[in-house]
């Protein structure tokens, strides 16, 4: 049994981890531990004299851990890149193994070659020392199985001693007592020797549970995934397996951190500042390190730095420039992975920056903005830089082809950001360019049913002007690249081809075939299909000339979301032509999540519903008969004698638009209308839905049901569907029939109004099964027995909670207990004092309710955490 002194010290150490060493008062300590205040005071002063505690000041005086014993152990793993990302679970497992009561548990570290297994093992040792589980300078003995491949029997003798010879000359297990025995490259061992090693480890595991400091060592086995059989054997006897991800499995942000660490280290070694262009940095971020992972990345970067150092060794410049020619051929192929990781790469490494690495940090500086350059000038400049670095023609073409679109966008952004108007344009380009470009875009707009922004016009004029001046380059794209664009955007390409042919005739020049593809890219600059996130869009389909266009353009210019489009319908146009135009517009503007069409004439609704089925795009229709209403108002104005009568007529029409449609509930059954009708009668009797009508439907055919719901939506607002299946149409809320008939009738109004979900739908066993996988510091079975009844008491004694709040509170408290039990800190609640003061009664009740948890898991729930619970319960 612990002495009062040890109990007090352990209590303060635990409290310190939970509250970031905020300190405890003598009275608080005495109340929590149930000892006399005078005894607590004398013990606290004795611990201060021993240097284990210190007085934090204030009134009353608070006691906390001394500086030397504070929470340094929590920061050991932070030196590992990915500690809060791809390595988070493995670190959590390692901590749980080290902090296991009475005796550390052994760990198996698995991963591909070069994933950092040895570094991870060393960090586990550092953590065990920092957390006080191992003594300072505790032994860390490493046994490399590589050395015993020719004599595997000798491995067992070296680790555990040769019992037959009765000698302890080589007994790594004994030498590592009170520390860690690290068995490396265990995947190299044969099946027989693995079996013997596992049996011997298992025997030693069963010796007992004496504290690690005076008994057997903690064992860490590192094993490569190349030998699944070995992993399986070791996993049978090792309680925890920490799996380290390969470099390819890590997020690119983590790989960038690794690159930064390596380059800053090399900068320190060379005593130079390393400068690297964004293009090369992207190659380093994206090339495949399939053989040796982080080891290969480190070796490749060091080789490149060494080559650059050799090249500029005598220059005397403090700045060392790295070029793509300094690196191996396989690194240059990193751009082949660019398309797959385009968005993430551009977020991490923007092109328009310089990157420098010193001994302490990486810095980014914006490139100086240059005067307008043509697209080909930019490409030629890059090609020249690569040629100067000794890159061969094939590699230059590979680099430029993969950079093409990024370079195009950079050129595009610079050209359109100049806010050129036509008057300025005449001073910048050949005036004979402007008219054919304008005619081309007008023709493309009509044939593609797409409007082009002024940016497209200005950018295209600048580009064509450069082309006719001879600023063209050799073929930039490979044949497959060009074929892919032509195949995907046939109409845009054919229009561009006609345009280029016309330009060649006007200016008596011959342009390369790449030009047609580049002009196609211009036509795609404003295309919602290209490079956008999937979202629904709006289409105004209105009669008249300029009505829909003006409305859509005004909305886009104000809202700036570019998600509103138009289709203008001439009054005299045949219905067949109208239908074709609607289909074409909807196909062109769809961004993958459907189109909401606002229309003015009744005959358009069936057209749009038919189009949805034919082209496979979700279409929703909203009637806004503004044109017909305007015509009617015009007629009224022609016959009434005063403006007041006209105003009243217009207001009557508009108020008709404002009036909310009648709400309905649809009862749905696939077995016949009788079931839906009975469901309707039940809801009418018990549902208390006087403001809502109920419509029974019996339809198993999805298409018929869609059509019927569409008809109903024209007249009603469908509040929800209650039935035997969810048709998942139009975003209408669904309530299963089991929720209606499976509860007391008095609860039905709440269910129909979405105020309460039946608790039986929450499977607590499922919730705790999930928590068991996540919470490694506590007995989840014990928590399963204790926590739900406490949550029920919260409902009864504090305040009734929704099921969502209950589940959220349950998971929050489970995770908090797990962190406290694992000696992990909890976040500080900066509103703690104000919350406790405002909810003093709740605070006192909750303190009593959580005592069984504190007792069961030998922990203390801090006031910060109690304030968090109050916030959850009261939805603060």
Tell me what the structure shows.
This protein is globular. The chain has 38 helices and 20 strands. The two termini are 43 Å apart. Helix 2 (26-33) packs across helix 3. The longest helix has 24 residues, at 393-416. The chain has 876 residues and is α/β, with parallel strands linked by helices. A hairpin with a 4-residue loop joins strand 2 and strand 3. The protein folds into 6 domains: 4-69, Winged helix-like DNA-binding domain superfamily/Winged helix DNA-binding domain (Arc Repressor Mutant, subunit A), CATH 1.10.10; 85-245, Rossmann fold (3-Layer(aba) Sandwich), CATH 3.40.50; 249-368, no CATH class; 402-523, PTS-regulatory domain, PRD; 660-759, Rossmann fold (3-Layer(aba) Sandwich); 762-873. It is 53% helix and 12% strand. The strands form 5 sheets. A 5-stranded parallel sheet has the order 5-6-7-4-8, with helices on both faces.
SSE order and pairing:
Elements: H1 4-19, E1 24-25, H2 26-33, H3 37-49, E2 53-57, E3 62-65, H4 88-98, E4 107-111, H5 117-130, E5 140-144, H6 152-160, H7 172-175, E6 180-184, H8 191-205, E7 218-224, H9 228-237, E8 240-243, H10 252-270, E9 273-277, H11 278-286, H12 293-311, E10 319-321, H13 329-332, H14 342-348, E11 353-357, E12 362-366, H15 375-388, H16 393-416, H17 422-428, H18 431-448, H19 454-468, H20 479-488, H21 490-507, H22 514-523, E13 535-543, H23 547-559, E14 564-569, H24 575-589, E15 592-599, H25 604-615, E16 619-623, H26 626-639, H27 643-658, E17 662-668, H28 673-686, E18 693-697, H29 702-715, E19 716-723, E20 734-736, H30 737-741, H31 748-752, H32 764-774, H33 780-798, H34 803-821, H35 832-838, H36 840-849, H37 851-857, H38 863-873
Helix pairs in contact: 1-3, 2-3, 6-8, 8-9, 10-12, 15-16, 18-19, 18-21, 21-22, 24-25, 26-27, 33-34, 33-36, 34-38, 35-38, 36-38
